[in-house]
Write a structure and sequence with these properties.
InterPro entries: Asp/Glu/hydantoin_racemase, Hydantoin_racemase-like, Iso_Racemase_Enz_sf. By secondary structure, this protein is of the alpha/beta class. The chain has nine helices and eight strands.
């Protein structure tokens, strides 16, 4: 007689490393739109630390807070951890501290964008983020097929969206017209959850790194349970 078993639910913790609740809300929206029905996903942000992560000092401070959040889960660890910041900082440290699947939204987004389009552009928020993202395109080996643009808007305004749609629209249109991008990767946690709306308006695929990180985490959890 054959019997069937139900796999335990996938438990995933998504960490927005800044303390901006609007960014956390954007991240949660992206998670809710992409998670499997049998995944249990929590979205959190630190209680202390930078409101937005722009400088190297911001990253160091936020990293300490992220590691503290991860450490507090170790009595009942999650199956996977996602860092919802496009810098992908603290990914290796969280993976080492927890021993669990750990994914950054930048890597997940770049992998997805490179699968669906031969060339793509990454549209981020502040200009100071561009060089760091360029370095990450080299790390993840998509530098030959991608370009990076900044909408020149603050992370706070990006999360509000309505106040900055004109600047964001201009950057996206330039990526399509001038970069000949065949897909757009949204390069900030503050832009999470806008992909479907923007894809409808601009007529090209938009990739959301948070959504892709959730899908990738779910897949890797299954693989880890099979070994």
């Amino acid at each position: 007689m054959q019997t069937s078993s139900i796999s335990p639910r996938r438990r995933i913790l998504v960490i927005n490393p800044n303390t901006n609740p609007e960014v956390t809300a954007r991240v949660r929206l992206a998670v809710d739109g992409s998670a499997r029905f049998d995944s249990h996903i929590e979205v959190v942000n630190p209680l202390e630390g930078p409101f937005s992560i722009v400088t190297a000092q911001d990253r160091e401070t936020a990293k300490e807070q992220v590691l503290d959040i991860a450490a507090k889960t170790m009595s009942d660890p999650f199956d996977a951890y996602i860092l919802a910041c496009f810098d992908d900082f603290a990914v290796d440290e969280v993976a080492f501290a927890t021993g669990r699947v750990t994914i950054g939204m930048c890597e997940a987004g770049m992998l997805a964008a490179s699968r669906i389009a031969p060339t793509f552009s990454i549209v981020t928020t502040v200009k100071s983020a561009v060089q760091g993202i360029v370095e990450l395109t080299k790390k993840y080996e998509v530098d030959k097929v991608s370009l990076v643009r900044a909408a020149d808007i603050s992370i706070e305004d990006a999360a509000a969206f309505g106040q900055t749609s004109e600047c964001l629209d201009k950057a996206i249109q330039s990526a399509i017209d001038d970069d000949h991008a065949q897909a757009i990767l949204l390069g900030s946690g503050a832009l999470a959850g806008y992909g479907d709306e923007l894809s409808f308006r601009f007529g090209v695929p938009f990739v959301d790194g948070v959504s892709e990180a959730v899908k990738l985490a779910e897949q890797r959890i299954v693989l880890s349970r099979n070994y």
